[in-house]
Design goal:
single chain; about 270 residues; mainly alpha; Serine Threonine Protein Phosphatase 5, Tetratricopeptide repeat; 3 domains; about 75% helix; TPR-like_helical_dom_sf; transmembrane; membrane
């Protein structure tokens, strides 16, 4: 098929798909489709591509990110990866304009398709990365439902009050109470170290949290391995994936370690 036919066919097909033809012109075009196999073949290709660009509207209608997600997407667009994608798309357009002037693609159809495809790719990549981001994984594992109770120790009102503050998400108060207790007692139970470490973690006092969990790890307590698990969560919240993975791998060295199975699943999600 020569270039003139390509151009004529494209203009006719484009006008038909965009509903720009009059009733008479539409009838004549549909008759031509029945009598011209080349035109019909070209039309079917255009029709599929046109449907693709039309269906891409779902991105605008259903993808309504939160304020935090918007910030993450903005960060992505400024990243080297996003710039490479932008350059790739721009180069594809240049290559097309240089070498494919008479293809059934022309700028009016090709560019919307390219734009839709690039947007869809970015959304898919963002969604995939977001689903398994270290911050999301931290949120998933930081519900603090399995913490030990300190209220049974009637002689330690300070600990009971600290637990109460922690459960009410008053982390500054719980941190102050537990920290004071740890500093004024030579022997500290593993449970108290967990609470003071998690209180520090909730306040983004990462170094303090790690120091308390390291203290638990180096103790001779039966449940000292809890320190590894909570230390991994510190690194998750910090978005320090490499260190979190190292800690999780350490947990998997012994099936008796605290949250061994959870660590295995979490590590798989991160790799």
């Amino acid at each position: 098929m020569d270039a003139n036919h390509h151009s004529i066919y494209h203009d006719q097909i484009d006008a038909y798909l965009r509903d720009e033809l009059s009733i008479e012109e539409k009838a004549l075009f549909e008759q031509s489709l029945k009598n011209n196999p080349e035109l019909l073949h070209e039309f079917r290709i255009h029709q599929e591509l046109f449907a693709l660009t039309d269906e891409s509207v779902w991105i605008n209608e259903s993808f309504i990110p939160s304020e935090e997600e918007v910030k993450e997407v903005e960060t992505y667009f400024r990243s080297t990866e996003a710039k490479k994608l932008k350059n790739t798309i721009a180069q594809a357009q240049i290559n097309y304009q240089k070498g494919n002037r008479f293809s059934f693609f022309n700028n009016r159809l090709f560019l919307p398709i390219l734009a839709a495809a690039s947007i869809a790719l970015i959304v898919i990549l963002y969604t995939f990365n977001s689903n398994n981001s270290t911050r999301d994984l931290y949120v998933e594992h930081s519900r603090w439902k399995d913490l030990p109770s300190l209220t049974s120790r009637s002689d330690e009102n300070q600990l009971a009050e600290g637990q109460k503050m922690f459960e009410q998400k008053k982390y500054q108060e719980s941190y102050s109470l537990f920290k004071n207790y740890v500093e004024n007692n030579d022997q500290t139970s593993p449970s108290v170290l967990v609470y003071v470490g998690l209180s520090a973690l909730e306040l983004n006092k990462y170094e303090e949290a790690i120091s308390y969990f390291d203290r638990l790890i180096s103790s001779d307590a039966v449940d000292q391995s809890k320190g590894y698990w909570y230390k991994a969560l510190v690194y998750l919240k910090q978005d320090n994936e490499d260190r979190a993975i190292l800690i999780l791998e350490n947990i998997l060295l012994d099936e008796q370690n605290y949250n061994f199975n959870k660590a295995k699943v979490l590590l798989k999600k991160m790799q």
